[in-house]
Amino acid sequence: MPTPRPLAVITGASSGLGEVFARMLAQRGYNLLLTARRLDRLESLCRELESSHGVHAEPLRADLADESQIDGVARRIENEPALSLLVNNAGFGTLGFFHETDYSRQIDMVKVHVLATMRLTRAALPGMIGRRSGGIINVSSVAGFFRSAGNASYCSTKGWMNDFTEGLRLELDALGSPVAVQALCPGFTYTEFHDSMGVKRELVPNWLWMDAAFVVRESLDALASRKLFVVPGWQYKAAVLLAKLMPDWLRLKVELNSPHKRR
Ligand SMILES: NC(=O)c1ccc[n+]([C@@H]2O[C@H](COP(=O)([O-])OP(=O)(O)OC[C@H]3O[C@@H](n4cnc5c(N)ncnc54)[C@H](OP(=O)(O)O)[C@@H]3O)[C@@H](O)[C@H]2O)c1
User: Fold this and answer.
1) What SS3 class is residue 257?
2) How many whole angstroms separate alpha carbon 174 and alpha carbon 183?
3) What H or E segment, with its residue span, contains residue 129?
4) What number does the ligand 1 atom closest to the CA of 190 have?
5) Could you tell me the distance, in angstroms and rounded to a whole number, from the CA of residue 168 to the centre of ligand 1?
């Protein structure tokens, strides 16, 4: 009997990095369960990938800022015997200093970045550990290693994703499990992310921008070696290294002058 195709579940697959993950994983022979709020986009992507790669691709509408819908996705995936890869990718940023922002958007961010990641990981991991195979990619950000004025919730929720992923890795290693967990930490990448926030791309120097396909390839290529933190691009690798070496007073000065500073 032929081995069934592995299944990848991707949140935020209606655009940007999530869509590129879907395309590259379909190319690699994965069946797909794709979630986001824009169902029309998911449906047409699924149709395209089914016809071009012969895989099964299922769209699932879910607003991950709604706890009952997070739960719906979790219940849908927790008993999937072929679940091989979970990509917790859905996310967004907001503009402005925390005390002036729309508080409900900040809560939504915690739900999408933190609660959904936690709940879906909790749903996926027991089966993967039992089968001794699989992986989870948490799409964090290089912002998870820094703080910046105008991005307090974004940086801290991504910092949580980094810490959570490292904690999971320690637990998997303690169990002797081969399951891989990865925090993917991109810097500025061409997607719809900054359009949704109303950020002008030209404010960020060209050399800081990366292509989404490059970022996703770096992530998938690092999965087999169980690399914990994947930071695509020499410029961001250098920035993360420098941040770790700097004393707090110097890091605070650099953070205050980051390209993200805005009011
Ligand atoms: N682009 C960058 O420069 C950059 C850098 C570092 C990290 N990242 C991270 O990369 C991830 C993907 O972002 P992207 O750059 O690909 O941006 P994007 O093109 O705007 O994609 C964001 C995805 O998240 C989904 N999403 C947002 N809010 C959601 C919600 N409430 N419920 C369900 N899905 C939701 C969107 O789908 P719907 O709108 O259809 O729901 C969309 O598919 C994010 O976690 C982001 O923080 C991006």
Assistant:
1) coil
2) 19
3) helix 116-131
4) 1
5) 23
Ligand 1 atom nearest to 13, measured from its CA: 43
The reply to whether ligand 1 has any atom less than 6 angstroms from the CB of 188 is yes
Point out the ligand 1 atom lying closest to the alpha carbon of residue 90: 24
The mean predicted confidence, pLDDT, of the chain is: 95
Q: Which residues are catalytic?
A: 154
pTM, two decimals, is 0.97
Span 206-252, pLDDT tens digits? 999 999 999 999 999 999 999 999 999 999 999 999 989 999 999 89
The pLDDT of residue 58: 98
Q: How far apart are CA 232 and CA 213, in angstroms?
A: 11
Q: Is 7 exposed, middle or buried (0-12, 13-18, 19+ CB in 10 A)?
A: buried
- The answer, yes or no, to whether residue 261 has pLDDT greater than 80, is no
Task: For ligand 1, say whether the CB of 186 is within 6 Å of any of its atoms.
Answer: yes
Task: Name the strand (E) or helix (H) holding 60.
Answer: strand 57-61
| Predicted pLDDT of residue 198 | 83
Which residue out of 14, 158, 193 has the highest number of ligand 1 atoms within 8 Å of its CB and is therefore the one to mutate?
193
Pairing of the two strands 83-88 and 7-11 = parallel
Q: Ligand 1: does its nearest atom lie under 6 Å from the Cβ of 36?
A: yes
Domains and CATH numbers, the chain: 7-256 (3.40.50.720)
CA distance 239 to 31: 36
